[in-house]
Amino acid sequence: MSDNTLTVTEVVNSVTVTPVTNTVTVSEVGTQGPAGTNGTNGTNGTNGATGATGATGATGATGAQGSSGVVTVNAPLTNAGTSSAADLSVSTGTTSAVGVLQLTDSVSSTSTTTAATANAVKTAYDSSLVKGVQLPYRAGLYYKTPNAQYGTQTISHQVTYYTPIFVNTSNTFDRIACTTQATFSGTTTVRLGIYSDSAGSPSTLILDAGTVTPAATATVYQITISQTLATGFYWLAFCQQGTAPTIAAYVGNANSQSVANLLINANTTPTANQLAGFFQLSVTGAFANAGTLTATTGAPFVYIRSA
Amino acid sequence: MKIITYGLGGYDESKPNKNIVEEIDIPDEEQNEADRQA
């Protein structure tokens, strides 16, 4: 059967055949449905390692030649070379042209092509007040505090007397001295020295020259020294020590004999004699920096000799 | 007038003549002239 019809062969016996009323329908199996759609793709794998650096590129071509330089200078600059090989310098200055100047410490030069240092200016300033009244130092001469006259000064034992002096230009001195007067009597020791000045009074010890031993009248006692003093104020120191003499009379600035100069033309009262310097009590042995000072109108002279 | 000169350092017992290196007598006339000129 292929058309869904039942065929019955005719037989002798009667056979009632009830027509089949039902039609059997036999269907063929349908064709297979289409396949399902594909699943989604899996995720990508991780990236691979970075590749090696590439080789260095080739050297570039040489650049084009540069243009020639041009040097233009203005005074005081000068150019002794060429426009492409400069040799620059600064011309020397004069009183009529700007330029480079050599520095100098000299305070006596008459040059018009050098310039003074600050040091030279200070030296000139320090000596400006007395240059006109004090001659330059002369070798072999003795210098002391510049009072008008000298007399007899009877001094106290173990007291340092300081008298001022102004050195008007740097100078070396080779002697320091004191002098006994005709009335001196006995034997003693005198220490001599030099102090710096600070604000008008003795300050720092510069030289303790040592001692002399006065034992005779009218005699100069001096010590060899080698002391250079720069321009400025100083104090010459005298101190009688050891055994006191019977009469301690030395050449000095006696009372009522004023210091006739601008250095110490003063006193603690307007009616007193002008000061000769300062004294300091109870000084024994070697000198130290100045201590307690008292003004005095009388003091023994100390001399220093120019080398 | 006499000038007595000590060497560097002044009086020194350990040195010959106590470090007196020179003694000079100045004639009175010379001294007076020096005083007069002073």
Description of the structure:
The complex is a heterodimer of chains A (307) and B (38). Chain A is mostly beta strands and 307 residues long. Chain A is elongated, with a radius of gyration of 60 Å. Chain A has two domains: 57 residues, no CATH class; 165 residues, Jelly Rolls (Sandwich). Helix content of chain A is 3%, strand content 31%. Chain A starts with 76 loop residues before the first strand and ends with a strand. Chain B has 38 residues and is of the alpha+beta class. Chain B has one domain. Chain B has a two-stranded antiparallel sheet. The longest helix of chain B has 10 residues. Chain B starts with a strand and ends with a helix. Classes of the chains: A mainly beta (307), B alpha+beta (38).
As laid out across the biggest beta sheet of chain B, the strand order is: 1-2
Remind me, CATH topology of the largest domain in chain A? Jelly Rolls
Number of domains of chain B: 1
Contiguous helical run count of chain B: 1
Order of helices and strands of chain A: EEEEHEEEEEEEEEEEEE
- Beta percentage of chain B is 25-35%
Number of strands of chain B: 2
Topology:
The complex is a heterodimer of chains A (307) and B (38).
Chain A: E1 77-79, E2 88-90, E3 102-104, E4 114-116, H1 118-127, E5 142-143, E6 151-154, E7 160-167, E8 171-179, E9 189-198, E10 201-212, E11 219-229, E12 232-241, E13 249-253, E14 277-280, E15 294-296, E16 299-300, E17 303-306
Parallel strand pairs in A: 3-4
Antiparallel strand pairs in A: 1-2, 5-17, 6-13, 7-12, 7-14, 8-11, 8-17, 9-10, 9-12, 13-16, 14-15
Chain B: E1 2-6, E2 20-25, H1 28-37
What is this structure, in a nutshell?
The complex is a heterodimer of chains A (307) and B (38). Chain A is mostly beta strands.
